[in-house]
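> run fold Membrane protein
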Amino acid sequence: MPSAPSSASDGYDIALKIGGAALAVGLPLGSFAWLSGNITARLSDAGSWVPYRPIDALLHPRQLWPRLDETFLLFAVRILPVLLTLLLVTGAAALWARYGNRFGGGKKKVTGMAKARDIEPLLAKAIEAKARSLRPRLKNAARIEPRDAGVLLGNLQGTKREVRMGFEDVAVAIMAPRSGKTTVLAIPSILAAPGPVLLTSNKAAGDAYTTCLDARARVGRVWTMDPQQIAHAERTMWWNPLADARTLDGAGRLAGHFLAASVDASQQGDFWSKAGSNILSQLFLAAALDERPITDVMQWLAFPSDRRPLDILRDHGFAAVASQLKGTVEGPPETRDGIYETARQYASALLNSEIAAWVTPQKDIPEFRPADFVTSSDTLFLLSKDGGGGASALIAACADSVMRAATAQAERAGGRLDPPMLAILDEAANVCKISDLPDLYSHLGSRGIIPITILQSYRQGQKVWGDAGMDAMWSAATVKVIGAGIDDPDFADKLSRMIGDHDVETVSTSHSESGKSTSVSMRQERILPADAIRALRKGSALCLATGMRVAMLDLRPWYAEPGAAELAADSARASKAITTRALAKQTPRQADFDQAA
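> ok
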């Protein structure tokens, strides 16, 4: 290995540091001395303007301004320049401390991560070119707005270069609670969406719903489905979940949503779960064929001996399905009662008249039709509580219906939606458990349907879709965004290995009779070890895009962008309206209790 006397290299380092410090301080100090000396000389008629000579102004001011009074000279080229330099340094330090994080300052930049050339397809020029090829209406546009070209993910760390996913990408975001997943991803994406937007969420006040409500109302109609009154929204729509259940496959999908909302993936294969789901699908099919409301299914479940579903199925040519239903009804009472009770538990939310009203025909209230929605610039907010059971099944079923309607429309339009539809599935593992979502990921992007599934952890996805399902969705996602709060050591290590290694220079020092010497060697180490991923700061995220090196992003929350003040006012107004509606529903005793508290 090459070696060199330590004293020589140490001397060079010291000299370089001293020279850099002298330049950093001396240049502004000399410039201020030259400027203030000239201004003082002109104001006192003690000389003409001297060309830029900062060193002479600092070291030999009398040569430049020989007629200037000694007191003026001392103040102009000694005292005032020192004060101005101190003010400059203090101000620069304060600005850097406050705003440096936006431009890569105030934090250590990770070496070995992707540079701009490594993620070229996600940067402005490539994203714009891709948008022209994907969206016919933009092909000949003189200029394309960034929002029309792709979804903003953030800035490449330490730069102002925007990183965007295109309108053929599908994304998975894993970000812990309170890590800003709504403020940096959901809300900016919704506000900038060029077409229809679907959002699922379990929160309303102070969240994406209130922040985006008025803004999206200015570009299209806002539909809100709030069966559990998260936002205490007035019922201004109803949706028919049986509209897509007129086939055996459609009825099976609807029943599958009730199954997924009630039990984890590990339990969905047992006898009772499958049998209960089968009964629901058969009864959903009968109700859809006879154009009955979905609540009639609960009546049939309460009385297994009711023959109307059997007659409906036979009359519409589903004799085999009717035979299966009859076999269950006439089977051993213990088995039949267990199957029906399982199905009743899955669909129990339909017993709640307030929930059922959102999915049954309502007089003088418009029906939400997915086929019309996907060709509009409207917004659909789907709200449900965590663990909402059957209520979250209706949320998942509605989201699924919209995405299938979008797929059908894309096929009719030549293969893609233009403008594309954005589907933000926030809290997907809690309120939008679409069983085959991992499979849908393989083709939604090519249809102009852009899903962004937001999870709190990788294990949360495994619980809902199983190991194989979550692995499939992770693999199919062309963009993965990993934010702060990754506490799963296995997943953190997996990410660390995916990010890879880089060469690190190691300097070692040895001592001998001839003196001290140093040697340099190279070794490989992880770019980001697991502990560094766990400690990823808020405001940063890893971006893993197909076929590219992993990039570190500086995230951009909506409240730091232009127009934030107006959005904040909109959010405050919408949140206050939620509180007003909630208080209006309270009984006098509840109101008195809240007032006393």
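Residues 241-354 form one domain.
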